[in-house]
Design a protein that fits this description.
Structural class: mainly alpha
Strand content: under 5%
Radius of gyration: 22 Å
CATH class of the largest domain: Mainly Alpha
Number of strands: 0
CATH architecture of the largest domain: Orthogonal Bundle
CATH topology of the largest domain: Tetracycline Repressor, domain 2
CATH superfamily of the largest domain: Tetracycline Repressor, domain 2
Largest sheet: none
Number of domains: 2
Shape: elongated
Distance between the termini: 85 Å
Length: 245
């Protein structure tokens, strides 16, 4: 027996699935419209649920962005942990300690480039999330967030003899600023570099940072002769070098 046509059913979610679906929808909206270009109601519509259903999981858009920020931090911490595990050298040696700092910084940059929407939410003034050193350890897979991983890595550099204790004070600010600054330039395409140029730029940043912290040049490996890094805007690159008169 035929029945009359009915309106499409809204998607049904098991406990917890709707929350994750809203986070996924919000991430896509950030990529499409920017962090400020959508509302919680729009995220709900994108998932196919009512605004009331969305409000059962998030009090407002700020809460949604805070959850998205924390999700990004958890993923970034996992990438940094994986980078530490892959760092070359024998544990406890100065070379290994210096390599760990280099690898977590590279993981940070590559995460930002691969996840620009997450990155923009994580470090923008869009939501009221705790400071990085105040986040509960149990939200991270191995108990350490990105900031704590940086702090621990720098402390290990002192223990291993890679840097002097006097150079340790405030080093996390210098290290974070250097790596985050490069990441932001890449994500915003202010510094439009391809993969090879990105690696080259990161090498310059980390070498400068490590030498500034007093790390022995012998621990950095031989300098690799490379062509000058072209940091001109993409338009200027296409135009090529200025013609001689």
């Amino acid at each position: 027996m035929e029945t009359r046509a009915s309106a499409p059913r809204r998607a049904r979610y098991h406990h917890g699935d709707l929350r994750n679906a809203l986070l996924s929808a919000a991430l896509k909206l950030v990529a499409k419209r920017g962090v400020e270009g959508f509302s919680l109601r729009e995220a709900a519509r994108a998932v196919g649920v009512s605004a009331a259903a969305a409000y059962r999981h998030f009090e407002d858009k700020s809460a949604l962005l805070a959850a998205l920020s924390l999700e990004g931090l958890v993923r970034l911490a996992a990438k940094m942990e994986e980078a530490i595990a892959r760092a070359p050298g024998a544990p406890g040696t100065p070379a290994r300690a210096a390599a760990e700092l280099t690898t977590i910084g590279w993981a940070y940059v590559e995460f930002a480039v691969a996840n620009p929407s997450h990155f923009r939410v994580m470090f923008g003034p869009w939501c009221d999330h705790p400071q990085f050193d105040e986040l509960p350890a149990d939200v991270f897979r191995k108990g350490r967030g990105p900031f704590q991983l940086l702090v621990d890595t720098l402390d290990e550099m002192v223990r291993a003899g890679a840097i002097a204790p006097a150079a340790r004070e405030g080093a996390e600010v210098a290290a974070w600023s250097a790596v985050h600054g490069l990441s932001s330039l890449l994500v915003d395409e202010t510094l439009p570099l391809d993969a090879a140029e990105r690696a080259q730029a990161y090498g310059v940043v980390t070498r400068t940072l490590l030498l500034g912290l007093g790390v022995s040049p012998a621990l950095l490996g031989p300098a690799v002769a490379q062509p000058p890094l072209d940091t001109r805007p993409a338009g200027a690159r296409r135009q090529g070098p200025p013609k001689k008169a």
